[in-house]
Amino acid sequence: xxxxxxxxxxxxxxxxxxxxxxxxxxxxxxxxxxxxxxxxxxxxxxxxxxxxxxxxxxxxxxxxxxxxxxxxxxxxxxxxxxxxxxxxxxxxxxxxxxxxxxxxxxxxxxxxxxxxxxxxxxxxxxxxxxxxxxxxxxxxxxxxxxxxxxxxxxxxxxxxxxxxxxxxxxxxxxxxxxxxxxxxxxxxxxxxxxxxxxxxxxxxxxxxxxxxxxxxxxxxxxxxxxxxxxxxxxxx
Length: 236
What we know:
The protein is α+β, with helices and mostly antiparallel strands. The chain contains 5 helices and 9 strands. It has 3 domains: 4-63; 65-179, Jelly Rolls; 181-236, Dockerin domain (Type 1 dockerin domain, Orthogonal Bundle). Strands 1-3-8-5-6 form a 5-stranded mixed sheet.
């Protein structure tokens, strides 16, 4: 049975769908009057954002079109947390996702263990031409865990590699749309400050993915400590 939150999510998806239709109509208009859309990636950024939001909201009910089979890697969807394991015999896993246009994405990778971490995580991001776009070993304020906020230069399929600097162990991995200053920037305003702390405090003890920094399924003191360590961090 759908909850009120489910209904609200569907309404949100419909609004973004309307936005996406308007973007597509605008692109057709630009082409009709001779404007080269690809020469101005900022012009179609809103279209890509709208399409990604539809995927994020609707992926609870249906799976989006997969891209992994085309790119030779597993699919990863926005706002879904994935669990994997790094070992000597399997030192990296490859995931793929697709965006509709130039936009920011934020990516986190955390060692599953919060008491005896054994994995120093590392994330790498490549474009369709196998060029390294960005990588991160130790994110700000989160120890040996990884975080990066990246501006994707254009629409297309991107490959995300979850690997290690050292060690073995299980990990949590998550990708979201939008820019963040650090993993503790839960409200995505490009600074880790009291506003984020108040939101994390209000969610303590709950399974709230928006404020669960370390992705372990519950907002707890570990998330609070990560917030304190990253406090003051701003977007570059």
